[in-house]
């Protein structure tokens, strides 16, 4: 996503604010295999979010939970606005906004993940949930919004940017120095039921030259064996890992795999206090993953403003299998389904290796706001529903019925779908 410098907002200059509007925490997607590409026509029944931005979406059975910094929502066929601050839930297929799911929060929700027991984990910049102290992290009933008091995980400082639940484990990332009463820098693994920190999972993330370490995005393979992280780090557990690292988490003692790439090292991409890497997602079978980036610089040899595929089957140093350039327009989110690599941001084009954000280069194809890439060739698929660009698409979540999309704009597929929409499988 587009990262905003939320550490010291009062000290930001106008130039920094302009950059910050292009940068924010990312959400993870659950790897959902789909044999075909979704329809270009948007779903008619998704609710409208009337202000702010949708940063995260999680699907729990027939319910979708939506998080962001909004204050009001409205059903697609209704003229009545409902007060919902930072989070709400609706029923898939009808768009009915759940009347009982109305938890009270005092800050933005940046991350959501479905629990295994009809629950949803929420993460972000809040300090209270339903009148109780719950800094940055809480577990709710996905239908009622009630707080699960058995889950006591919380951060002591900072924010949560990404959550991924796998079985009895919950991975938490963002920028923080302590969680559940133990020291952890930007990344932790908790007991999914209690929120207690896993004392066997203590990754040492560092940044050369100092500065705040952040994990902006992460993904966990569907089998739970691999953890992929990107962020503002240069070393993980004492080995060089420039903004991107792959960890084996299949056993009791996780370790950094001997998998590495120099693709994101020494880049001239603009990256503010965080990394220019924005979103990551594994393929459904875990054999590869895709990274999307910002950077505002277009050079064919650089990885700014690109989507790139990397293989996971062997260790060693890896070059990307393919790279798709937007031409200096940020990509913020990615969802890999096997039939497509969906990417969202505020891009104008894909396949724009030799163009720029003001120029369509040779071979470039228009894909405003949202697009799909062939997983094998790395070239844009014909799928082109179009979307208002704005800051861009912050959340892409594939689920058994199709693809859900969260953003800060109001039109998708030439129809009004304010900040939330989706595409069904044909």
Structure, described:
It contains one helix and 39 strands. It is an all-beta fold and 426 residues long. Strands 18-19-22-23 form a four-stranded antiparallel beta sheet, with no helix packed on it. Strands 25-26-27-29 form a four-stranded antiparallel beta sheet, with no helix packed on it. Strands 1-4-5 form a three-stranded antiparallel beta sheet, with no helix packed on it. It has one helix at residues 14-20; strands at residues 48-49, 54-60, 63-68, 72-74, 82-83, 87-91, 109-114, 119-124, 128-129, 132-133, 137-141, 159-166, 169-175, 178-179, 182-183, 187-191, 205-206, 215-220, 226-231, 235-236, 239-240, 244-248, 255-256, 259-260, 277-282, 288-293, 306-311, 316-317, 322-325, 331-336, 341-345, 349-350, 365-366, 370-373, 395-399, 402-406, 411-412, 415-416, 420-424. The model is unreliable at 1-30 (pLDDT under 50). The protein has a single domain (9-424), classed as YVTN repeat-like/Quinoprotein amine dehydrogenase (Methylamine Dehydrogenase, Chain H, 7 Propeller). It holds the Pfam family DUF5122. Keywords: Signal.
Descriptive labels:
single chain, 426 residues, mainly beta, Methylamine Dehydrogenase, Chain H, four-stranded antiparallel β-sheet, 1 helix, 39 strands, globular
User: Remind me, CATH topology?
Assistant: Methylamine Dehydrogenase, Chain H
Helix content: under 10%
| Number of structural units classed as domains | 1
CATH architectural name:
7 Propeller
Q: Identify the CATH homologous superfamily.
A: YVTN repeat-like/Quinoprotein amine dehydrogenase
Q: What is the strand arrangement across the widest sheet?
A: 18-19-22-23
**Cα-based radius of gyration, to the nearest Å:** 20 Å
**Share of residues in strands:** 35-45%
By secondary-structure content and strand pairing, the structural class works out as mainly beta
DSSP E strands, number: 39
- Uncertain runs are 1-30
The shape, in one word, is globular
Signal peptide: 1-30
Keywords: Signal
Organism: Longispora fulva
Protein name: PKD domain containing protein
């Amino acid at each position: 996503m587009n990262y905003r410098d939320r550490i010291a907002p009062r000290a930001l200059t106008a130039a920094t604010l302009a950059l910050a509007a292009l940068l924010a925490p990312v959400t993870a997607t659950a790897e959902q295999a789909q044999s075909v590409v979704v329809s270009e026509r948007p779903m008619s029944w998704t609710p409208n979010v009337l202000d702010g931005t949708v940063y995260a979406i999680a699907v729990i059975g027939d319910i979708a939970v939506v998080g962001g910094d909004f204050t009001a929502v409205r059903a697609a066929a209704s003229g009545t606005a409902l007060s919902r601050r930072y989070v709400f839930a609706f029923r898939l297929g009808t768009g009915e906004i759940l009347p009982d799911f109305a938890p009270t929060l005092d800050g933005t929700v940046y991350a959501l993940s479905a629990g295994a027991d009809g629950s949803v984990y929420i993460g972000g910049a809040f300090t209270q949930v339903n009148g109780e102290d719950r800094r940055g992290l809480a577990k709710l009933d996905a239908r009622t919004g009630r707080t699960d008091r058995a889950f006591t995980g919380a951060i002591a400082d900072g924010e949560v940017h990404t959550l991924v639940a796998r079985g009895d484990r919950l991975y938490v990332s963002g920028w923080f120095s302590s969680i559940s009463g133990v020291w952890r820098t930007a990344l932790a693994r908790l007991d999914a039921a209690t929120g207690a920190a896993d004392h066997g999972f203590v990754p040492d993330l560092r940044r050369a030259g100092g500065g705040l370490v952040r994990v902006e995005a992460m993904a966990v393979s569907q089998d739970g064996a691999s953890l992929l992280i990107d962020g503002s780090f240069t070393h993980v557990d004492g080995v060089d890992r420039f903004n991107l690292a792959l960890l084996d988490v299949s056993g009791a003692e996780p370790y950094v795999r001997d998998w590495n790439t120099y693709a994101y090292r020494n880049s001239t991409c603009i990256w503010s206090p965080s990394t220019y890497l924005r979103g990551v997602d594994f393929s459904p079978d875990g054999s590869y993953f895709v990274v999307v980036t910002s950077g505002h610089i277009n050079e064919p040899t650089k990885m700014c403003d690109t989507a790139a595929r990397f293989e996971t089957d062997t260790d060693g140093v890896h070059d990307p299998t393919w790279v798709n350039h937007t031409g200096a327009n940020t990509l913020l989110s990615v969802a890999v389904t096997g039939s497509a690599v969906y990417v969202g941001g505020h891009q104008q084009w894909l396949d724009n290796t030799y163009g720029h954000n003001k120029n369509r280069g040779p071979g470039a194809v228009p894909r405003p706001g949202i697009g799909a890439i062939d997983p094998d060739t790395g070239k844009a698929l014909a799928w082109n529903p179009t979307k208002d660009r704005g800051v861009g698409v912050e959340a892409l979540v594939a689920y058994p019925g199709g693809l859900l999309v969260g953003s800060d704009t109001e039109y998708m597929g030439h129809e009004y779908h304010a900040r939330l929409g989706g595409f069904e499988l044909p």
